[in-house]
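Need tokens for this chain, all 362 residues.
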Amino acid sequence: MDRPDATFTLAYIVFALCFVFTPTEFRTAGFTVQHMFSEWLGSEDISFIQHHIKRSTLTLLLHCCLPLGYYIGMCFAAPEQNLMYVHQASPGWQVYFAFSLAVQLVSCALAFYWSRRGWSNHPICRALGAHALPQSSWRAVASSINTEFRRIDKFASGCPSARVIVTDTWVMKVSTYSLHVALHQDCHLTVTDSRQHSLSPELNAPVQILTITVASINPRVRPFDIRLKSTEYVELQEKLHAPIRNAANVVIHLTMSELFLETFKTYVRMNAVYWCPSGQELEPCIGCMQASASVKLLRLCQADGEGECQQCYCRPMWCLTCMGKWFASRQDQQQPETWLSSRVPCPTCRAKFCILDVCAVE
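Here are the structure tokens for all 362 residues:
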């Protein structure tokens, strides 16, 4: 890493990835297209459609600048390559320069084409045109969306590069280069997939992400997928005029406690197993009286005499689900990020334990 060109290459790759796939740290620091060019883009709250037409165009131009920016940076990072004079550079660098320059010129030509006829050639405008009445244009649809977006009762979820917005009439998905739009009365929403994550980077808590396909009966509107947290599912349903179908029979966890219970079970299955002595029969769980007792508390997280956890001498009396519900019920409901690392008393003998001390019974 003593070579300047290698150091610059690594730093530029990291910068390019963070600029394209903007992490939370970059957004917090204001290093985004929306923040740096906010004066030219205008207010999203006032002119939502016009803002995203300009934003998507500018984002395309800036992203296409990255290959050429790397070449220009290497002119200074590796002066021995003679990159400043293209005709003296190696054939490989000449090909790269031609490619990066072509990408930049094509993006400029595309942006110029989009801006013609008052941006009517832009993909967002053409998408809006699919919803326009015969004697109207995309501008009437844009005006309707702008008006509804200003209302405070809209549903909005997701990061800036994949936002889901639902107003009284429209379902919209904002992505890096485009904007998908569907009319409430024309579309059908279907839950097609679900992914469970033990920890969310934003909340430091378990989260379930639902994938919902939005399909319109309008043949000019292409189907698109939206993603949101399961805890926002009810709020989305209340904003829509039609029910959401669950074609994949996905189990949707609507509360934080339900999400935590699934995460609790996952962590317990990774812990050590307690082998039940021969001849000992497992009694029904004293919590639900339905399932057999299936967990035993053993102090495994720390050595004796260390930490707050205590040894529990109770025989297996609880099933995994009831123990998880007990664990969740003893938490601070306002601080879900502390649940996994907290300690609670045994529901029978009150000895403190953590999630690492819960062992499945075999």
